[in-house]
Structures are given as C-alpha cells and as structure tokens.
Fold each of these.
Amino acid sequence: MVVAIPARDEAGSIHACIRSVDRAAAEVAVPVLVVVAADSCMDDTFAVARSTPTEFCELAVIEGAWGRAGATRAVAVQYGLDIVPADSGSVWISNTDADCLVPPLWLRVQLELAIESDVIAGIVELDPESTEPALMDAFTATYILDGEHHGHVHGANIGMCGAAYRAVGGWCLKTVVGEDHVIWDAMRDVGHRMRQTTQLRVITSPRTRSRVFGGFATDLDKLGVQPRDLTEVLDVA
C-alpha cells in the first residue's frame, strides 16, 4: 500500500500529517509505505518530514522542483510503486495532502471498499479547532452531502488500485490545479468502478491563501469575499 503526500512549504503541518497516517497504518494488515514529495520548498518541510518518527509504516521523503500538483503527486506515487514488493497493479494507492489529518480507520475503510471499487473519493472537513465559526458555517452550508454519498473529488482524499491508476496514465503531469478531477474523469471514461462516499473523511486546513490560485484555499477565500452568494462562489466538487 502506497500513501502519496505532496508538500510545498508545509513545515508546520507535515509532522502531524505523517503521524496521523502512521496511526492509520496500524489498523491494516498490509505493509504501508508513505512517500512525502517536498516540492520547491523554501522552508524546513523536507527536514521535518525526514525527522518524523513512524511505528507502523515505512516513510520515504524526496525533494525536487516539480512545480505542479499533478506532477508532484505522480512522482510520489511512482517512487512508492518502484519500492513496494508487489505487482504495481495490485497495490492500493492512497492520496492526501500535507495540511490534512487522516482518521485512524482511513486506510482500513479504503481497503474494505476496494473489494468492490477501483477508485474511491472521500470528503474533507475543516479543522474545527482552527476554523472561524463564520467560515465553518459558510462551508457547511455549501458543501453538499447526501447521506453516505456525495459529488466531491479531492486529491486530499482519494484512493485507487494500481491497475486503474496505470490504465489512465496516472496523475496528469501538466495539471497545476484540478488534477483530482482530471484523473477521476479519466477513470470514469474508461469504465472503472467508482465510489464517492462520506465513510472516507479527512480534516483539512481552513487557510484561505492558496499555494496556487484555484485550489481549495481559493474556494474558502471566496466564501469570505462574497458571503451573500455562497452557492455560486463555492465549487469544491
């Protein structure tokens, strides 16, 4: 099992992210390799990640200047697939972001759902401890869920089998933003078994300054700029 985590200037959050994935690794019976790809960092992300102790998973930290979200995710995944002692088609690939915390059952739920699914998209929740009440209310009002189901796709919370990943050529290397929708649409177009479920959740940062314009933080920022028209400005599908 490979967990890919792209990171750019995330020295303040990468330790907690890795630790949360390590706790999740304790709940599965398969080996877990976590790959952190530190992209064009100007802070201590690489050093902090390398010094983070893990007990239940193996950790690899690489650094480079890939410059795009899709490319950074792709490098992290490929690094993991090159190391894991199994056919890459049978390896489950989990993806999250460096400013996220995953729950203890995050990996177990994916493996259970993978029995009938080739790719699984979960949801994100804002960190209740660091999110202003007004932003939390605005986000909750516009982030539509339907029981166990939803219509969202987030690179911060998506898993897929290696065979499905290879079939679509992996993460798009040229995509600066929206790489999650690109790979999801590609898998749908070739007929893979898709599932979007609220069973799979991660906690993410409420920051409104995006690493790239058009990302999730940009959507949150729009909530503060135009609070009277939330349904039009928020598009975090």
Amino acid sequence: MPVLHGIRVSSLYRTSPQDYPGQDDFLNLAVAGVWEGSPRELLCTIQSVETRYGRDRTREIPKGPRTLDIDVELFGSCIIGEPGLVIPHERMHIRQFVLVPLLELFPDSADPVSGRPYREICDSLPDQGVVKVGTLNGC
C-alpha cells in the first residue's frame, strides 16, 4: 500500500462557507508530502479516511455540512481530467480557503495549466473570510 511521507502541514484557518451558507464555518489546512502511489490511489485512500471519520456521501447535501472533506488539489505538476478526479482541482483558483494554506507551504507555486502564480490568483479574489486560527499541535 502506498504511503505519504515527508509531510508538511500549513496553519489552521477558519473560513466562512462559500457555496451553502446555512452551515457552520469550516476549518481548513493544506498538507503536502511525497506519495508513492498514483493520484487515483491517493484519492481512494483519502476517501477511505473520510469514511472512517463518519462521512457518508449518500446522505449529504452537496457542498453542505460534512464531517471531513479532503481534496486532492495538486499532484506535482500533473494535469488530470478523469471521471471523479480532476487535478488541479477545478475550483481551487476561486477559493482563498484553498490558496491561502497552499501558499503558506509553497509561496512560489503556479497553476500547472496556465502558469499563473497562485499568489497572483489569490490576491485577485475578493475577501472570503479566511482567518488564521493557529497550528496543529505536533505538526
């Protein structure tokens, strides 16, 4: 089974819901590391983690409250467009709650499709209420 090593974790951020406002704020962070498997294997692994922590996609309101939501935003410089797996994540360029923690880990990163720096993309977005609340202990 593939493993993730060399793990780096961003600070923790509280953000307002974007697509379904009738719910509590979210806590967001970015995690980076070296994955020894394929992007699809990573997706399957993180979905099994979500399930272990109580996520049931069959009972959810789309974009609504959920116990845990882990997305694969990037996978190196790969560009993938498959059913159920799009990398870079198709909405990351409009989400400060993704870009702010990502830029903490990779301040000079750029979109692999357009080449546009993520810092420039993030700075061009309206304020979305992303607030740094601290770090995870031990990370």
Amino acid sequence: MKHPNPMTYKMQETIWHLWKAGDPMANISKVLSKPPATIFSYLQYHGGIRPRLRSRSLNSLTIRERETITRGLASGDSIRAIARQLERSPSTVCWEVNNNGGSSKYRAIDADNAAWKRGKRPKLCLLSINRQLRDVVASKISDDWSPEQISGWLRRHHPNDENMRVSHETIYKSLVIETRNIFHKTLRKHLRTKRKFRQAKAHKVGSRGRIVGDVQSTAVLLR
C-alpha cells in the first residue's frame, strides 16, 4: 500500500523529530512548507507511530560483493571461484546469481535494488498469520473490549499456547497502522481513545496552537 502523500526521507525525519518533541501539526507544516492536511494524512497513515528504520542484515551481500560477482561472471569464473574470492559459501553466490537473472543477465545494481526491496517488505506479525487469534481479537474489539483486556483474557485462557497470545501493543498497532491491513478500519471506532492516531508523550492538552522551539532551527533538519 502506497502512502497517498509521499515524503522524502529528510521530510519524514523532520516530521517524526518534531512530532516526538510535541510540536503541533501547524508548526510542522510551516517547517516543511506543506499543508497541515498533508501532515495529518501522513501521521494518520502510520497511526502516529514511527516506522522502524530499515537496515541490511550483516549477512547480506554488499554492493561491492555483487560487483565482484558481476566481474567474475563476465570473466568466465566459476561460482566456486567467485565464492572463494568473496569468502562466501558457493550456495550463497549460486542463490544470488540464480535469483537475479542467471549468469548471463546478472547485474550488481539490479540485484542490490531487488535485495533492498525485499528487505523493505514488512515482517508479518502473529495477528496477520493466525486467523483463529485474529478472529478472537476482532470479535472482542467489536464488543468494545480494550486491547489490554483482550491481551489479559488470552493469557488466562491460553496459558500454554503461545500462538493464542498477543500483547496489547500489537493489537493497538494492528488497529491504527494502515499499512498492516489486518483489521477493517471500522473496528477503530471501538477503541476507547477516539484519536485518529497516537499522540507523542510530549503533546499536552491545549498545545494545539503552541509553537514548540524555533521554526528556523528545526528547519535545519531538512538541509
């Protein structure tokens, strides 16, 4: 699911920095020169919860290693010879080549981009893969149970079944974060808090019109 109002990486960093600091959306929109509705849409899309930063696994091939594979293939080197040069297992190099076009079509930059896209895919949480658990949680949400009540009930009724237990935080996030796409959005109205998304702890009642910090100083994050 693509976000309706895409932001650059620097804009995203600025939004989350200011939001965590307690700045109102009006102030964030001034810093970014974006309409307040755009900031609201972005925060609502993520449920007011900052997405985890993506990072490469320490075991994944680097772009330099992939370039070595490209040069080795072009020179007619065997998979085992390339693997020895990289100090990697032949199976790793073989998988890399076969899953990126084969020996004749392998390109380092294309393989690296494909690996990055695969890493971008969100990991499935227990609620997305366990239909029985998901149905129980959805039923109790419909009955106006809070995430805390549901989590506690599951612990008491399924003390020896890890697959039938889930934290209240996971339930809450699965309800408010659109990208998870686990529960129908109509279930959100059963949450006792009627906010569209999570507020940062620094936000205080009545702070809507307050400007926190200096707009010019926060704008430096965009440079």
